[in-house]
Task: inverse folding
């Protein structure tokens, strides 16, 4: 492996380094130490990637105006088409034919790696300034509303029939599916309420908005689900250990109602899958998928309690309650991390880095890129380096335009761009010790 070339490519992923500096010796030592720790498969994949020449020379990072297309006095690119792919990344996208060839040659790991790389390159080259027609937007909004409100009212209807099935049969397995249906309604109500509250702007009282209310609502709901699941487990254990050994009163009507719930959930899942790029609809899609599995398992365990033994019903109740408990505990944990301020994923930060890098010829280096969650949304901090002789009005215009561009990226709540004239210094912002 060409170690020098590998080091140059490894720098691309070190998004919070001191700088994108081809002459940074400390960073080169770090890169060598990092690649030496990789296992053989990782090294093979990395070698294949570097052979593509994704970045041929890191000196290209310090760009000149001569290869940048038309620019304004502030250095911002005016012809996006002339500068949307300065590193010719589009040429590095691996075709579907080549990906299939990797799989046929039992190189599924390599195929998976390049598939992810294709998605990453596509996100780099996406035009975030692209305008969507008002008619198309209204059409998409209508589809999303159908998915959201259709799912919500369907959950109310399904809760009614599952409540009847659970009460009339006295089945703990069907009771677990009914509890899950009830929680779907409560979850929808909480999320709708917190979403409306979050969208009400009170800029003087809440300068950064109230978007974190949605995350708080999810945490509250997850806690409620965990409590109810625990209570259901206790009730199922009590049934198993009691002297009363009677099977549930299941009838074709009870089972048919649960079957109707499964069919309705399947249809909703198929519809929501076509709109899964919208986060709200994706949440409902995942919920419908989970409900299909839960209701199917509850139906199976209820049927087995009639054919095998009465004990299959409380066992099914315990299994379903445990599944709900684990699922929502994970959900609560993930949302706690979001509200605490966990870093955004590396692909997202890499995209922000690329957007900043190609924004203007006045930007010589990218010093630091940080992106961290503040609830569901992300705050972004970018430190860029310009020439010391750059006029103040130019540095202001370039950084402000970059800030506005980053804030157009889906999921970004706020962006902060800091301009410096040098990157050979210690980090300027440290967390305060308490």
Result:
């Amino acid at each position: 492996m060409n170690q020098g070339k590998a080091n140059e490519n490894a720098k691309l992923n070190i998004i919070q380094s001191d700088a994108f500096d081809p002459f940074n010796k400390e960073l080169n030592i770090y890169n060598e130490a990092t690649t030496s720790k990789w296992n053989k498969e990782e090294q093979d994949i990395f070698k294949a990637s570097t052979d593509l020449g994704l970045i041929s020379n890191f000196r290209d990072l310090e760009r000149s105006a001569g290869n940048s297309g038309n620019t304004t006095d502030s250095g911002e690119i005016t012809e996006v088409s002339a500068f949307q792919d300065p590193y010719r990344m589009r040429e590095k996208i691996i075709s579907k034919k080549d990906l299939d060839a990797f799989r046929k040659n039992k190189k599924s790991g390599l195929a998976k790696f390049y598939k992810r790389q294709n998605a990453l390159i596509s996100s780099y080259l996406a035009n975030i300034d692209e305008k969507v027609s008002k008619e198309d937007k209204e059409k998409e909004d209508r589809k999303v509303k159908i998915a959201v409100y259709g799912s919500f009212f369907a959950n109310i209807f399904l809760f009614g029939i599952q409540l009847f099935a659970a009460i009339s049969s006295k089945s703990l397995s069907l009771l677990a599916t009914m509890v899950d249906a009830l929680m779907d309604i409560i979850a929808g109500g909480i999320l709708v309420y917190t979403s409306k509250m979050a969208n009400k702007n009170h800029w003087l009282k809440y300068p950064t908005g109230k978007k974190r209310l949605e995350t708080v609502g999810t945490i509250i709901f997850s806690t409620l689900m965990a409590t109810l699941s625990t209570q259901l487990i206790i009730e199922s254990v009590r049934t198993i250990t009691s002297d009363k050994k009677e099977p549930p009163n299941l009838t074709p009507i009870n089972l048919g109602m649960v079957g109707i719930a499964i069919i309705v959930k399947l249809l909703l899942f198929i519809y929501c899958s076509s709109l899964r790029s919208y986060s709200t609809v994706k949440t409902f899609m995942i919920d419908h998928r989970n409900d299909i599995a839960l209701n199917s398992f509850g139906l199976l365990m209820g049927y087995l309690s009639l054919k095998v033994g009465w004990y299959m019903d409380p066992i099914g109740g315990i299994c379903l309650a445990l599944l709900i408990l684990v699922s929502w505990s994970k959900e609560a944990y993930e949302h706690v991390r979001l509200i605490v301020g966990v870093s955004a994923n590396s692909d997202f930060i890499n995209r922000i880095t690329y957007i900043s890098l190609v924004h203007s010829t006045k930007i010589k280096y990218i010093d630091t890129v940080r992106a961290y969650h503040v609830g569901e949304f992300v705050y972004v901090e970018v430190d860029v380096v310009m020439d010391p002789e750059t006029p103040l009005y130019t540095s202001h215009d370039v950084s402000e335009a970059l800030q506005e561009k980053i804030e157009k990226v889906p999921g970004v709540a706020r962006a902060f761009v800091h301009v410096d004239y040098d990157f050979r210094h210690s980090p300027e912002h440290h967390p305060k010790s308490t």
About this structure: Residues 346-420 form a domain with the Alpha-Beta Plaits fold (CATH 3.30.70.1350). Confidence is low (pLDDT under 50) at residues 1-31, 45-83. The first helix runs from residue 3 to 11.
